[in-house]
Every structure is written in C-alpha cells, then in structure tokens.
Write a structure and sequence with these properties.
Radius of gyration: 14 Å
Order of helices and strands: HEHEHEEEHEHE
Number of strands: 7
Low-confidence stretches: none
Helix content: 25-40%
Shape: globular
Distance between the termini: 37 Å
Number of helices: 5
Length: about 150
C-alpha cells in the first residue's frame, strides 16, 4: 500500500474509535501529508476572519467561516460557499482553532456533500496548556507546518 492509503486508513480507524460521523480524523502532520499526496484534496479552514488576520493563515487553505465574526453566529452560507469552492469529489479536511468547529463542519459537509471529509485534530492552535493558553501543545502551527501571519 502507498503512504496516502496508509494515512487515510489510520484516520478512518481513528474515526471509528472516536465514533465520528464522517470519514476520519487526522493529526496536523498527517493532514499536511495527505494534502501533499492526494490530488485535489482541500484543506478548509473554518476559523473566523479575526483568527485568520490576528492568529495566522494556512497558505492555499480555503477559508470559510463556520461562525461569523464578531457576533459568533452560525454562517448560514457555509454549505453554499463550500459547494462553490470545492469539487464534489474532493477529499476535504477541516481545521479550526482546536478541532471542535471543524468537527461540526466535517459532519455537516459529509452529510450534505457526500464527500470524504476528515477533521484535523488539535486544530491550528492545539490544546490549552496549564496556563490556559494555546499554541504550545499540539496544533498545526506548533508542528511547524506552513502558515503565515
């Protein structure tokens, strides 16, 4: 088996263990590798505009807010925006700050688009440390994966 197949099988096994309603769950490192290996795969960043502007962006990620800033209300145009920006057959990976919003986005997208959807565990900033701050334990940025301010 190839590396891509191995990564997706691992993510699918992890997904079954976690009982998630979409294809699987990837670590940030695995998601980046899948993104490089899978033709047409898309990384969908569902954080807010404020997070993209103030915390950092992932180059070439598709940015669609799950919750609108500043009112923190669900983005009623999420699915139409997603369908407009990605191919129906694309492998989709969703990322947010910590993995919670992206879990919800992956679940909805999987149900509505029938695409292979994966959540990026740990998100962009990872879990909170003992001081309640993010960015030091897990996450895309902490893993040294591509991002810019």
């Amino acid at each position: 088996m190839g590396r891509l197949t191995d990564l997706l099988q691992l993510a699918q096994e992890r997904g079954r263990e976690l009982g998630i309603p979409y294809a699987g769950a990837l670590t940030p490192q695995e998601a980046y590798e899948v993104w490089q290996l899978a033709p047409g795969a898309k990384l969908v960043d569902v954080r807010t505009r404020a997070e993209w502007d103030w915390v950092g962006r992932i180059p070439s990620a598709i940015e669609i807010e799950w919750l609108s800033y500043p009112d923190n209300k669900p983005n009623s145009n999420f699915l139409p925006q997603l369908k407009q920006q990605v191919d129906r057959e694309a492998l989709l990976m969703f990322i947010c700050r910590s993995g919670a919003r992206s879990h919800n986005a992956a679940a909805l997208a999987s149900q509505e688009t029938r695409a292979d959807c994966y959540n990026v565990l740990e998100g962009f900033e990872g879990d909170k440390d003992a001081s309640g701050q993010r960015g030091k334990i897990g996450g895309w940025r902490h893993a040294g994966l591509p991002w810019h301010s």
